């Protein structure tokens, strides 16, 4: 059982490393995959597959968060990340004022505002087009000369030019072709710039939300350039309160659809529990801890007694900190009650044999008798736990728990009956407090399942136990265990 648990926990820890450490270490090795250290890292983290998943997640971010709809010049999105991974994007209310949007639009559209108008090519009849072929224009002059120079070699061409305007027509065609070529280049450059801007925005937002747990940000984008106008972290439930449509700023030109800016005096809403990393809670503990020699401290010779029934139960108060969505540290304080029954038929007991007619008087011998005993005990416990889990789905995460318990026996009371040949004794110990030297130290390991961080159930098996003073020797080889039910908020 314990070997199986250790195997599961090892696999779980590897997953946690991939989700956190591997993601940060594999990036620098992408450019030097043949490096010895990087090859070793790749064998542990499967870097290529991990980097492919990150690249796919970034493409999904561009598709969901950066894609614009309609003709509005600006649009906003509420973007949700979970443990550094993009989850979803929703349309949001633009947090900027109309004046701010106008200013940004003006500053980043000067090139298009100052662009030359398309060249207008004058009309020409078919007869003139045919005649102009006999007097072709000198294309080398188009760049510097607007009107046709005098043709000294063929005076007839001067009359053709005066009638049909061949040079003006040919030069207009040349200018129009050049304009369209430059316009195509400008559009290509604009597309390339937009792609570069979107890549920069993607890296920036992934950097902002490279955190444990939920991360929500509102981004405002300029549709034409793909530039990020503003980014702001927001509350967990902002997606629910966002507007149902992208803010249109056609008012920059028409004065309609006025932008409703966010009021500066509005207080951000407190994040919901799904975005928290700190939790308080309460737990119920039920378990069984086998032991075999505790009563020897009270009954001289009551050895080889076997536990017939044992039970431990209590309540605990806990504090939990999540260092990623399914991994946490936890400590608490528990109050426990223990009850244990012992029974041993024909067991050994060093008893007194008395006979008034005997010359030798009272003697002692090891007798074989029926032994029965029970004890009750109250304890305090401080459990320190490490949970490593796998977030399979949003509300469900199996985990492995390693817990170290520091226990302090406080108060106990016991009863024992011994029945056999010439022996019939009852021992009663009134309740008494343990001394300050009596402590117990236990190490537990086991699996569990967590639901929405608010409820979890786990079973732990004891690995190691130690004590100081008068305490218990637990039989961990008999699979002493405990069941924990925990509620957190």
Describe the structure in brief.
By secondary structure, this protein is α+β, with helices and mostly antiparallel strands.
CATH fold naming of the domain at 277-488 = Porin
How many H/I helices? 9
Strand content: 35-45%
Name of the CATH first level of the domain at 277-488 = Mainly Beta
Helix/strand order:
HHHEEHHHHHEEHEEEEEEEEE
Radius of gyration: 42 Å
Spatial strand sequence of the major β-sheet: 5-6-7-8-9-11-12-13
Helix content: 25-40%
- Under the CATH scheme, which architecture of the domain at 277-488 would be assigned? Beta Barrel
Question: What do these coordinates show?
Answer:
Helix 1 (2-26) packs across helix 2 (36-45), helix 3 (47-66) crosses helix 8 (166-208) and helix 6 (126-132) runs antiparallel to helix 7. By secondary structure, the chain is an alpha+beta fold. It has helices at residues 2-26, 36-45, 47-66, 98-107, 110-113, 126-132, 155-164, 166-208, 238-241; strands spanning 74-82, 85-91, 214-222, 227-233, 278-288, 306-324, 327-353, 363-389, 396-420, 423-433, 439-451, 455-468, 481-488. It is built from nine helices and 13 strands. The chain has a domain at 277-488: Porin, CATH 2.40.160. The radius of gyration is 42 Å and the shape is rod-shaped. Helix content is 27%, strand content 38%. The longest helix has 43 residues, at 166-208.
